[in-house]
């Protein structure tokens, strides 16, 4: 029983980590996209 609980804990920590990484990647990509769009508009004007 204790072993199972430990495995579950490990699994959840990995899940949390994956979610964090995914959200981080998502934010960085969206930020870069915004920066690129801003630069494009500046260049146009």
Architecture overview:
The chain is mainly alpha-helical. The chain is 96% helix and 0% strand. It is built from one helix and no strands. The longest helix has 43 residues. It is rod-shaped.
Task: List the defining traits of the structure above.
mainly alpha, 45 residues
What is the structure about, briefly put?
The protein has 45 residues and is mainly α.
Beta strands, count: 0
What percentage of residues falls in helices of 4 or more residues?
Answer: over 70%
What overall geometry do the principal axes of the alpha carbons give? rod-shaped
N-to-C series of helices and strands: H
The largest pleated sheet is described as: none
Low-confidence stretches: none
Rg over C-alpha atoms, rounded to the nearest angstrom: 20 Å
Strand content: under 5%
**Overall pLDDT metric:** 91
- Total of helices: 1
Distance between the termini: 66 Å
Structural class: mainly alpha
Write the topology of this structure.
Elements: H1 2-44
């Amino acid at each position: 029983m204790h072993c199972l609980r430990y495995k579950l804990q490990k699994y959840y920590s990995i899940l949390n980590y994956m979610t964090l990484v995914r959200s981080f990647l998502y934010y960085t990509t969206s930020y870069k996209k915004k920066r690129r769009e801003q630069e494009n508009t500046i260049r146009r004007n």
